[in-house]
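User: Hey, my collaborator sent me this sequence without any context and asked if I could get a structure. I don't really work with proteins. Can you help?
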Amino acid sequence: MKNPPVTLEAIAGRIVVVRGHKVIVDADLATLYGVQTRRLNEQVRRNAGRFPADFMLRLSAEEWTSLRSQFAILKPGRGQHRKYLPLVFTEHGALMAATVLNSPRAVEVSLYVVRAFVRLRETLAAHKDLAAKLRILEKKTEALALRHDSFAADTRLQLRQVFEAIR
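Assistant: No problem. I've predicted the 3D structure and written it out in structure-token form, which is a compact way to encode the shape of the chain:
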């Protein structure tokens, strides 16, 4: 199996949110680790005690259909005839998968996977901070508009449009 180049952006693009958890699908993780999906899942089954519910989830049929259509994570023909619904791994589950695979490629790439999860977490935190600052600015602008009758109605409308565009 040819090992694809590893970049944080490529890994981050494979991380999705399922049931409130940031996860990566088994097929994508297997590709990154340079093994077949069935080999990854086989090692997970053999080491089930290392994968508690907060490390790994099995997708429901609806979740899998939604992911396939929403993010186009499968190429035509690839994975459409899976015998079992896919597993998805959280950051900790992806690390544990690297340890049970015990291959140099898996160990090497697991570091990139962790960095991608961390970068995603930082990006989400930055967006929450920005949204909070925007709400504060919007309240201050509205308060200013109410205090000054000379604040034209069209200026208020324009400011609201700017805030909506930023959101």
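In plain terms: The longest helix spans residues 104-147. You can pass these tokens on to your collaborator as they are.
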